[in-house]
Every structure is written in structure tokens, then in C-alpha cells.
Amino acid sequence: MNNNVRISKDNDVAVITIDNPPVNALSPGVPEGISAAIDEMNSDPSIKAAVVIGAGRTFVAGADIKEFIKMTSSGARRATLLPLLLHIEDSGKPVIMAIHGNAFGGGLELAMAGHYRVAASTAQVGQPEVNLGIIPGAGGTQRLPRLIGVAKAVQMCAEGKPISAREAAALGLIDRLIDGDLLEGAVAFAREVAGKPAPKTRERNEKLGTAAENAPIFAAARDTARKKQRGLKAPLVAIDAVEAGIGLPFDQGCQAEAKLFTECLFSDQSKALIHVFFGEREVAKIPDVPKETPVIPVNRAAVVGSGTMGGGIAMVFANAGIPVVLKDVDEAALDLGMGKIRKNYASSVQRGRFTQEFVDERLRLITPVLTYDEFSRVDMVVEAVFEGMALKKTVFAGLDRACRRGAILASNTSTLNIDEIASATSRPEAVIGTHFFSPANVMRLLEIVRGKKSSKEVVATCMQLSKKLGKIGVLVGNCRGFVGNRMFGPYRREAQFLVEEGAEVAAVDQALVEFGNAMGPLATGDLAGLDVGWRIRKEYRHLEKPGIRQPFAEDRLCEMGRYGQKTVRGWYLYDENRRASTDPEVSALVRKWSADAGIAQRQISAAEIVDRCIYALVNEGARILEEGYALRAVDIDIIYLNGYGFPAYRGGPMWYADTVGLQSVYRRICEFHQQHGELWAPAPLLQQLAETGKTFAEFDKEHVAAA
Ligand code: T1G
Fold first, then answer.
1. For a pocket test of ligand 1, which of 30, 59, 65 has the largest count of ligand atoms closer than 8 A to its C-beta?
2. Cα separation of 691 and 347, whole Å?
3. Confidence check: pLDDT of 536 > 90
4. Is 78 in the pocket of ligand 1 (CB under 6 A)?
5. pTM exceeds cut of 0.70
6. Which DSSP category does 130 fall into?
7. Is the beta carbon of 63 within 6 A of some atom in ligand 1?
8. Strand, helix or coil at 643?
9. What is the pLDDT of residue 545?
10. Are 43 and 28 spatial neighbours (Cβ–Cβ below 8 Å)?
11. 281 lines ligand 1 (CB under 6 A)
12. Distance CA 164, CA 99 (A)
């Protein structure tokens, strides 16, 4: 037996416990330990059956994903799980899988190799491999349809979403739900089935149907995958694997699956998505704020400003079960804000995201107020008033007087200086930025902006709280636009320049959408409101360097009152359902403005459009890294995936640059520097990494290790 798998006896039932914290991944040694335990129980005449269970908080969360990184970087192939699963299935005595927490990926494949599965009703099971750009690789696409039918199996493998133990029991995947002690219930179940013929999942073909019956199922699944998981290859491959197995003997189906699995594993998409998986966990680690840093309990919150952002933020706290007071200056504003919140919740109920009961409970947690009277009892305040420094400072001075010592004073500003806001209080150590993204109750990203004096407790509290709020918290430094918006500036600047140089508005957006972005840069401007950026540009006009080219088209559109969707006209025209169509008037206007500005018109390829916009992100990202406003390149990637609709299967802008190769990215940026001047001066860090043949990923390793 090895350290991660142990066997014990409960009279005539063997209990095989997998103990590989934190999530019982099937790391090297674990499959071998399970196999040895199965041999031991089969060779012990006093044993009639075996229960396999996970130690700690979960069953098995899958194969060890870290091993995949080793495989794809070394090219060395690891032993698959297939032989172990056949070994379990061929056990002479029944093997019962007892599931709590999660049985994901290889964990569910292990469970399906057992003869029976019992589960705690709170458990979840699933094949989430497509989220890593791969497919089940240990018979999941072959055993799952045999247990639950083709339609549900192909959905689970292609969409990668887990299902509850209750649903799994209804589908026949789980044989019994256990309320109370899981091990006790599993051992009792084992005694019931001991001595009876143990069904082998691989021989249960009755639910497989025929190729003709399944053809429409696969066609529909492919359609859905192409629409809902645009650009992602693995879901389509998972469908291929399930389909390949129908009509083939089990072992040949597994071979077909293994071949497709390996192709996916060595793909750029999978490497990018595995980078994202660990990146989403890495961003939570702050080198100088260790895990044991004390945090401030946040049991009551407050939000100042009930506009679109304030209302959304109040919903975030309520959805996490935290009572929140929502303040605004007068009844009318408060009624409007609460009205929007109720409307938002109503549409969530309509879409089946929440039950009416859940919504009623949440609404009871939101208390609209007109004064600061309640604020002495809250643990955290998020200010979300109009984006003006003077107003923010007034609000923070008020909060400083109203809130108890020890409360966190946070600002949802998206551009303003946190230290200057903090200077309006007597407690800058309690001030921090919590930059939510619109709509706040939907977008997963939370940029946590560390001020010069923000205390480690306040930083640690906000980082931990972000998880409780269902957000991904990324710590960033206090520079103009922080990380996300600071990079978004050059990205959208290039999009405007390209239109001014002759590209069609729709062509610019189409190129970035085909690259994988959820939406193009110009349409994004129309959605957010072109006037937001215009107001900020006007406020900072005095900081613009003379002689440096500035985009003009969007400012001109704003001067004409074309703010985008909210004014029905922006870069595009919008109908009553906010559907966009190109506006020939805009092309004509831009052509005229460009001619007046003496900008030569030319044909511009989609490839150049992508390079100009994406490399503008990368170059600014490199500056942010070298200036220390982001801890790691992966932090920038996670910000762009969760706040700006960057395609996850490209790993984020910095990972994408590594995938292309920093030498060729640097070379291309030097070309743009030649052609377009100072704005494209390469970031010194990028130059250094390119010249030393290094990557941003290596920078992260060295940089964080040194921190
Ligand atoms: N391998 C390696 N490390 C893992 C891991 C895994 N499968 N799952 C989690 N970790 C690490 C994670 O990086 C973190 O580390 C710690 O465990 C806690 O995780 C053969 C090919 C189970 C829902 O895709 O979805 O099986 O940051 O913070 O929020 O066909 O982890 O502390 O150093 O996420 O409670 C398929 C992946 C693999 C599931 C728990 N399985 N894991 O969430 O904790 S492919 C998955 C999760 C496969 C087979 C195929 C979640 C979780 P650190 P955590 P959590």
C-alpha cells in the first residue's frame, strides 16, 4: 500500500481510502495504490466486497493536471488509467464507489468502473475535461453513455458541466443516495450486493441505441457546441469520441478515445486552458500577504450609490447571503436603483437562474437608506458614485465619520487614484479599490486595487471575500486605469486608428471576434457608452504628450451625440432590440475626417488588425509588469479572460504572446514602432525577454520566486 491509498476492514467489507490532499487527484502512485488494494481484497477470503472512498472533503477530482504539463513539456507519455479501471471491473468481488464532494473527470471514470455507486446527496459528478481543452481519456466517453444513455452523456462530455448526485441517481448513474454517514451507508450497501453477480459497466450496452437513432443527437450537440463554445475544439472532439464508440467493441472505443484525447492534450488550446486553470488559483496568492494573514469578518456590508454599478454590487453581496444597506441621495434615485435590482432579479427568475424564493430572500437582504445611520454597524462599504474625484473624496470623508474603526472602505472607481481618495480619510490603511465590472452581478472579475497604505489585513480580506462573492479577485497596483482599463486604452486606440487608416468598422470588430473575443473593440465601446471614455479623455487632455498621434474618430462621434447603444447611434446603428447594423454615414464621416487630417487610406488585412490590437495589449501588459502594477503575467491573463471577453482557449494576451513567440511579437512591434511612432515603443521587459529567448511564463516563475 502507498501513502495515498490505504485499506482497512469493516468485518467482511474492505474499505479502500484514497487520501491525496487537497482533492484526491490521481497523481502518480494513487492508481497503483488502488490496484494493489483491489488485489489485496480479492485475495482475502474473509472479504466479500469493497468500498472505495475519498478522505477529506471530496471523492476524486480527476487525473493530476500537473502531470499533463510535465507530459506536454517533456513529451514523455504517462501510463493511462484504463488498465486499472478494467482491473476493478474484473474484480471477483463487487466494488462500490462511495462519492462525496466531487467525482470529476478521472474521478467519475474511476467511479464508473466500479460495479455500484452510492453518493451523498450533496455530491456532484461530471466530465469537465473540455474546460481544460481535453476530453475524458480513461473510458469516460465509453462508459458514461452505457450508464445514462447517449444524449445526456454527450451533453455532459461536451459541455463539461457537473450534475448533482440527485440528478445522477435519477439517470441511473448513482445506485443509491446516502443521507447521514456515507461510509456506513456504503458498507451496508456492499453487504446487500455481496455475493451477487457484479454488473460490469463496459458490458451494459442496452442504452447505446443505433447509429441512426443517435445521428440527430450528435448533430444537435455539435450545433450547440459551435454556438455556445465558439472556437473551442475539445467539445466537438468529445462528441466525436462518444460517437466513435457507438457500434464499436468497448476496447476499440477506448482506443479511439485515447487517440483523440492525446491529440487534444498536445494542442495549444489545452496548454492555454490548463494555464488558465492554475492561473485562476495562482492569482489568489499574494507573495507578501501570506495565507495566515488575519482577515476582517464581513457579515454586513453597505454600498453608496444605487446606479447601475451600485445596484449590481448590492446584488453581489445579497447573492452571497451578506445583508447590505444601499444608500443614495434621495428617494427618487433609490426607487430607480431598487427598481433596476428587482427587474434584474425578475429576469434571472424568468431565465431559470434563480427561484422566486431565492430572489425574495435576497431582496430581503438589501435595505435601501438615505442616511449613514446604519453605517456604524457594517464591516465593509463599497462606494459606487459618479466617477469624479471631488465627489468621491466627499463621500469618503463622510464614510470616515460614519463607519466604525476596522471597517473596510472600498471604492469601485475604474480609473481614479486610490491614494488620493484615501487621503480624504483619517484611515488610509482601511481604503482599497474594488473595481467590479458591468454588469457587476454577472461579470466574474474583481480588480482589487492596493493603495500605498492599504493594510495586509484589508488586502487579504478582499482577496478571500472575492471568492465568497463568486468573483475572481486579482490584486493590482494603483496606476491610471489599473491593469484592465490601462491595457484596454491602447487596444481600443489601435482599433480607432485602423478605421481612420481605411479599415471598415465591421471589419475591425469581425477580425477580433474571429480571433475569439466575445465582442469587437468598437462594438464594446458602443455597449459601454462612448461618452464614458470621451469624458475621461477630456479630463486628462492636459496629460497628452504633444506631437503624439491621438485617435479622433470616437471623440467626433461623441460631439455629434453618438454615444452608442444608449443613443441608438454610435459606431453602429441599433434597432429597438439593440441589434447592430453598419452605418454608412459613419464610414463617410471617418473618410472625410481622415482626409482632412491627411491620413492616407489603405487596404488593411484581418491579420494586421489582430496584431495591432492584441500586441497593443501585450506591450502595455509588459509595461505594467515591469512597473510592478501586476504581480504576474498570468494575473493579466486572468483579468482579460474574466473582464474583457478574451478567449480562454488562447490563455490570455500574455500567454498568447508566449504561444506566438516573444521574438516574433517583439519584431512585429518594432515594425509598428517604425511605422506608427512613439506609441509603439516596445516595452523594455518585452525586449529583454525576446532577446534572451524567454517567455512571460518564465518571467512569472523567476519574478514571483524572487518576491
Ligand atoms: N489536478 C491537480 N491539482 C488539482 C486538481 C487536479 N485535478 N484539482 C484541483 N487541484 C489543486 C488546485 O490547483 C489547488 O491547488 C487545490 O487543488 C485546490 O483546488 C483522465 C483527463 C475539484 C471543484 O477538471 O475543478 O481527469 O492552488 O482551489 O475551489 O479523463 O479544484 O491550493 O496549490 O480549485 O474547492 C478533470 C479540477 C481533470 C477538476 C475543487 N478534473 N478541479 O475546487 O479547490 S482531467 C477537473 C476543480 C481528467 C481523465 C481526465 C476544483 C474542485 P493550490 P481549488 P476548490
1. 65
2. 53
3. no
4. no
5. yes
6. G
7. yes
8. helix
9. 84
10. no
11. yes
12. 11
Percent of the chain whose pLDDT exceeds 90? 93
Of all atoms in ligand 1, which is nearest to the CA of residue 140?
Answer: 30
Q: How confident is the model at residue 247 (pLDDT cuts 50, 70, 90)?
A: confident
Distance CA(595)–CA(587), nearest Å, equals 12
- φ and ψ at residue 38, rounded to 5 degrees: -60, -40
Cα-based distances in Å from 635 to 277, 282, 286, 630, 639: 12, 8, 11, 7, 6
CB 447 within 8 A of CB 416: no
Mutate to test the pocket of ligand 1, among 4, 18, 20, 23 (most ligand atoms within 8 A of CB): 23
Residue 630 β-bridge partners: 476
DSSP 251: H
Q: Cβ(297) to ligand 1 under 6 A?
A: no
Query: Is any atom of ligand 1 closer than 6 Å to the C-beta of 436?
Result: no
Distance in Å, CA 641 to ligand 1 centroid: 19
Statement: residue 447 has pLDDT above 70? yes
Cα-based distances in Å from 149 to 154, 173, 207, 214, 294: 9, 10, 5, 10, 50
Q: Report the separation in Å between the CA atom of 23 and the middle of ligand 1, taken as the mean of its atom positions.
A: 6
Query: Cis before residue 22, ω within 30 degrees of 0?
Result: yes
The predicted structure's pLDDT at residue 78: 67
Nearest CA to ligand 1 atom 52: 61
Predicted confidence (pLDDT) at residue 532 exceeds the cutoff of 90: no
